[in-house]
Batch of 3 targets.
Target 1
Amino acid sequence: MNALADAPPAQAGAPSARIEELKKTVSASRLNCWQTCRLKFYFRYVLRIKRPKSAALFIGSMVHLVLQQWNLARWRNIPFKLDSMRGTFDTKWTEEQKEQPIDWEGEEPAEKQSSWGLLDMYFKQTPIPADEKPEAVEVPVEADLHRHGLPVLVGVMDLVRKGGKVVDFKTTGQTPNPERTSHLNETQLSCYGVLYREATAARESGFELHSLVKLKAPKLVVTALDPMTKQQETRLFRIMDSYLNGLDRADWIPSPSPMSCACCEYFNECRRWG
């Protein structure tokens, strides 16, 4: 059945109540989707068309879940045990597929072993000392930006290290280029900067992107970045303003590109869009 059978045509506008809801708050993930393709944003956040999680997204979520447990253990002063982390990984791998099985195309054992290899590599190469207690782990934060004519910014930070350094974990199949990585993640990190300053009334000391690179021999690439600048904050606010204006106009315009379209879960809906 056509996934859009019960939905209004994109060009005819979207349910007004849902759009009003989206205008009240904004997050880094929504802004990134908005910047990537507004029609994809429409399918995902306005029509709420659900798609099964891909193998790559599942692996990324598994890595994040285990790293979250590792960070929480350090926060609670629980000694690190690799066997315990492996047990957590095995349990989560099974539990997370009960409601939504992944189509592994016969590659699940190899993908599972490869995914654990990423984590095993990270635990051996991480620059974070085993006895360093985090300031925060997976803490939901919000910043009311109405004084700037903007909605409430919401988000969850993976990790805040001692001294106010915000860390975000990435899984990737290619070795990241520092300059490109900084550019591609600027919106997300600027959101974290605003959220951290709102929550603590202090300036973050900087950012770290910990990229777990899924290669035959997995490796860790740490990209260290300076605190958010005033220019970056202004650019973020302009993006939010564009987001609000686009929602008002029902600006659901596709942005075709070889990279994003190749892995887009809404490719068929996009092709049928009028």
Note: The chain is about 50% helix and 15% strand.
Target 2
Amino acid sequence: MSTPERPRAVVLGVQLPGVDDGEHRSSIEELTRLSHTLGLDVIGTLSQRRGQLSKGSVVGRGKLFELARWTGGTGIVPSAAPKAKSNRQEKGEDEEDEPAGDDEETVQDDDGIGPPAGKLAEIVVVDHDLTPSQARNLEKASGVEVMDRTSIILEIFQRHARSREARLQVEIARLNYETPRLREGVQKDVGRQRGGGRGSGQTAHELDRRRVRDRIAELRREIEQIQEGSETRRSKRSEAPTIALVGYTNAGKSSLMRRLTGSDVLVADKLFATLDTTIRALYPPTKPRILVSDTVGFIKKLPHDLVASFRSTLDEAREADVLLHVLDASDPAFPQHRAVTEEVLTEIGAVEASRWILLNKVDRLSAADRERLAAQYPDAILLSALDANDITALHARILGFFERDMVEVEIVVPYAEQARVARIHETSRVISETYDDDGTKLVVKTTPALAEALSKGRDEPGE
């Protein structure tokens, strides 16, 4: 059975002042990978240096004609406006590309002057957020569908969301993205056409916006109900030692999660393969058990609405005792990836936990590159999630970290409450167990919170 051909796409970017060549290339390559994750076949890239994005169509006229060679379009944005300036044009919202300065841009070398023979692009993917008029003008000039960076990320999130909460969060982000892009309908006064009184009508556009607002409010209420249950579960775990894996998307967090916990979480060489926070106990088991959570990956220019929507999901990172900041050491752009993650962690308030830098995927590096990284980042842990010895060493380091804060207490359990003894064995490390007239005497090593609970006759903190 033949595999269906993937939609062909061309990636379009603008290098603005203050963005160096390496950063610009990295952004274009990342958008190409996002497009591949979405199932698109990127057949070429086009880029241009400009002082600012064209208000009308992102790039200048010359680049529009070049784009048209890849898509089969005209390269021209037809205008229905009269030559005299309209109110929209005076406000800078005209749909024609502005003439001033368009001939001054420096055009970069691209992946060729046109697409492979007989293979025109069906989609233009733009490495910027587009205004509705910019998107429309690019579609007119190229003759094909246009997607900006945010719409690509939202589509990937929508496809990869598994839990009910993640799907609701993505829908909110998508509605917030689409609301400004709703076009006014031809129908100007629904109320009057339906026989309403003077001034009582609403435009179709206003009704659409109201429906969207109502839907967002409904989704948020549902998320609040889900989060109440999440908060209850989180409070029960609050005194357990916790670790959160954070980092750029596709840095290898899920692979580390599998190796540290022995779980079967999804591992895929795709951006945003994991959207739902997964929590498992460290393996081999410890007493008390140590919980590990795998969180959603970050990315440059991550839409703000998505950060806000997934804030509850990222609470696991904010409340963790240790953050394992995972970086793909084989990616030359990992210093920029580190900065992006640090920025998001600061935004969500995850600043108090101990933070370890894990330079992952060192198996892809030469010995010389590993030595260079070790010298450049002396406090980082260099490892490969595929190396059993590296995982064992990381496991031991985690245990050592939490061992420092554990306390040793003596607990006497009356014979009438012997069921508690088994529970103590489950939750704490029992150093000795003896028997006398008062009951079973246990010396245990555990966390301070759990030690206090057990000493007061409770099995869990907060009971």
Note: Residues 88-111, 184-200 have pLDDT under 50 and may be disordered.
Target 3
Amino acid sequence: MSGKRSVLLVAQIAPPSSLVAARRVAAQCKYLGRAGYDVTVLTSAASGEGEIEGASAVVRTNDLLTSGLNWRRGQLAALGGDSRDTYKPPSRLASVVVPDLSLGTWLPFALPAARRLARERRFDCVLTTSPPPSTHLVGLALRRRGIPWIAELRDGWTFEPPHPPWPLRVQHAADRALERRALTRADAVVAVTAPIAADAQRRLGVDAELITNGYDPDEVASAPDRVDPLLDSKRHSFVHTGRLSLSGVSLRPLLDGLRLASVESDDRFEVVFAGSVTEEERLQLAAPDLAETVRFAGWLERERALALQRAADTLLLVTEGAGRRSVATGKLFEYLAAGRPILVLGDQTEAARIVAEAVAGIAAPADDPRAIAEAVRSAVVEPLAAPAAEGRRDYAYPVLVERLAGVIERVSARPAAAGR
């Protein structure tokens, strides 16, 4: 790495927010900064306050998400686990505004701030990261001024998006048109999963670079503590940390599978959920017939949650199954770092592929209670081997950010062409 480039990183969610999106931004700033890159972060006040390790400057703009006009502003805290309140489904307004609500809540503040920063100093490139997709409109605007632009997709934009289908065809068409207009003008596109990258190539003719999410080795304890008071040492402990579902994923197949496995396994296992849930999920987890098997530990501080992961016999990852093949949540990489076996529910997902490739666990269909029960029983009877360090080394953020730096070098070296 040359380590002398000036980068503007635009992300609505950034540290100190505890949302998983902020952890990727944190790692990018940290390791680009260590390599000598001059990183300026443009983010929303909704993410909190303070400096970000590795960033030379942090600009936090207003955001209507945090204003008194937003009666749901407490949802950010609930989603990130900063609040013990349950989180609620997305607002109905989210089904109206294309491409997303941030077009009206954050972009009116972020876009002028980005233009001002571009006038005040020279950037070698701008990196915009989504969701929300409207963030990329900042990159598109600066690209017209001749600043090379990298668009990063942590979720697909119109490919397997993390929201329900648009109710009107005209909305779907407008979203696709905006996606094409933006991403085909970027100097480079980064995708966090292979299916997202493949879709960009097939549908838009964009050669996307695959740079997955990862884990920060600085957070990995050198000597994992295998004792945790939340767990029963006499039973095989399955642990799920973080929030459960946001996209209409039903817990019923999982809980029905646990019921079947419990009856046939003489209560030799327990499943502990720790994190944020909806009120409906809380009630489902508290079902009387699951009282001896399932426990909800509530929200835990991040360090406490990481310690719980390391103490588990098996880590449980619930995905959205065949509905979204591109799913590989940030939590997966925390699990890999914990060094414990992983049971993925969603055997056709990118998460299942990564776990198989890393020899880090097994997968089962997310919607088949009988298959889930069989996978649980199998893990109890013949515990899975802990994954080898070699299988997870490629997902360490220093390695991943080095690859991102290569993209930055490539686009920054190209002659600028304003107005494209």
Note: The two ends are 28 Å apart (CA to CA).
